[in-house]
Write a structure and sequence with these properties.
Number of domains: 1
Strand content: 15-25%
CATH architecture: Single Sheet
Radius of gyration: 19 Å
Order of helices and strands: HEEEE
Shape: elongated
Helix content: 40-55%
Structural class: alpha+beta
Bound molecules: zinc ion
Strand order of the largest sheet: 1-2-3-4
Number of strands: 4
Largest sheet: 4 strands, antiparallel
Length: 70
């Protein structure tokens, strides 16, 4: 029983580290700029969850919450 408890603790801490790394990747993606399909300039910024706006031509796009894809 003692061994089982230890292995659960080890798994828990590894899982927590992976979640933290994943969150940092998602944040970096949501903060980066993407190429605008309308004017081809790299000016797409995240305006809200799932809403992306081009700062050059003003076009708005609905995409993923944290990553822009055409
Ligand atoms: Zn644009």
């Amino acid at each position: 029983m003692e061994y089982e408890g230890d292995s659960m603790v080890g798994f828990g801490s590894r899982y927590g580290k992976r979640i933290k790394e994943l969150n940092e990747k998602i944040l970096a993606k949501s903060r980066s700029r993407y190429k605008c399909p309308s004017c081809s300039r790299t000016a797409i910024r995240r305006e809200a969850a799932g809403i992306w706006k081009c700062r050059k031509c003003g076009a708005k796009f609905a995409s993923d919450s944290y990553e822009f894809s055409e």
